[in-house]
Specification:
The chain has 161 residues and is an all-alpha fold. The protein has seven helices and no strands. The protein is 58% helix and 0% strand. InterPro entries: GPI_Anchor_Biosynth, PIG-P. Its main location: membrane.
Amino acid sequence: MDKTITSEAALSSRISRLPEERSRAPEFYGFVALTSTYLLFGLYVLWALLPDEYIEWTGVTWYPNREWAILIPSWTIVVILLTYFVYWALAIAATPSFNDMSVLTDSRINLPNPPADPGFRNRYFDSARPDAIPELYDIPIGMVNRVLYRNSTSDRRRENA
């Protein structure tokens, strides 16, 4: 009996939480758009393929020249391809050059503040201790290059000289 009461209470709480009645207008607009699209495509195919006698028999006395049956899809494809090309060209034009600093960093860079005391150690060295939990900083590209490429041949020549 307790299970029945519990399930009825759960059911009534679910029913009370049902969403409010919403408009079904988007469904009708979608249906109208779908059917009108199919209807217009059917008329386009009939206009493009039927001989003139059949079209005039239906009572239509004026209709566009048949060359538009080829021109409209061709122009549509060209416009779509041109759109892709323009977006690609805009993306290439907006890309900074390789020697621009914005390629390496942005406005949200998080560098440590320079120390006011000249005898203060660099904050990057604080994270080198084994028990350290370092603060989160971006590493400047110059420091990365020094660490990665310090043993290059030019550095070895300088050290040997």
